Amino acid sequence: MNTTAKTTEYPAPKIIRSVREMQNLCLALRAQGKRIAFVPTMGWLHDGHLSLLKEGRQRGDVLVLSIFVNPTQFGAGEDFDSYPRDLDRDAALARSTGVDFIFAPVASDMYPRGYATYVNVEGLTEVLCGASRPGHFRGVTTVVSKLFTIVQPHVALFGQKDFQQLAVIRRMTEDMNLPVDVLGMPIVREADGLAMSSRNSYLSPSQRQQALVLSQALASARTLVAAGQRDASVIRDELAARIGEMPEARIDYIQICHQSTLQSQDVVDTDSVLLLAVYVGKTRLIDNGFLFDRTSGRS
Ligand code: AMP
Question: CA spacing 20 to 30 A to 41: which of 149, 180, 224, 250?
């Protein structure tokens, strides 16, 4: 990873722990007519996160980053305890992009004793990662709606790396009439194609090499489509065979779906997106991309 902390240009961000303090501050900023741009994360920042922050810097007068490893979106046996955390490191990287405030709450302030309210988006959350990780999106939509209420952003930036999450958050924002513009940003990759992820830090050198099979599978699928293949099951079978050659890879899903409904498709068309979830060792990695050539960019 080529992430480097440059701390010369911007002042250090102010770290805020308290939910009440963050909300009061953001309400005051709005009352002063400031435009708030917001990037929610779980920390252990990499260049993918930094791309969202750089865009956020352009889109708001005030840039807020949240860092919160949200317990409600992890299932039993998942990596909540081992998820990498280092606030000092993240604060230095955040400074390089001009973050004004880092909101880093503790779980007991976000979910105090007696907490009982959850937000659930139906349909979109029942497929793909929602099928493999029951309750995951309920945790995501709950925390994002809480963060929107606390931070009061005008614009919030999310990565297309988590394609389903972006679709779910857009749905929630629209359905609940939340006054936030949700902006989707392109996937940032390592030089060899691996999509950047905080979870890449779990990979051994040999697993890191095997993990390339995700982006390579995406490239193969595009080659097949460019050569005229439209049968989704043929493409999926080819990719499964290819991924299966990796000794430590185990497929969670390979799906070709419509980009907005996330319904699986039998025939590839210009709305088709390939979505992959593959365990490499114990690390679950995801990747995705459109199958037809299209100008990749913000959505
Ligand atoms: P996370 O910290 O994994 O919850 O991610 C926080 C935000 O960063 C989410 O909106 C992700 O989609 C986005 N993100 C994570 N990895 C990447 C990447 N490689 N490229 C672009 N955005 C990313």
Answer: 250
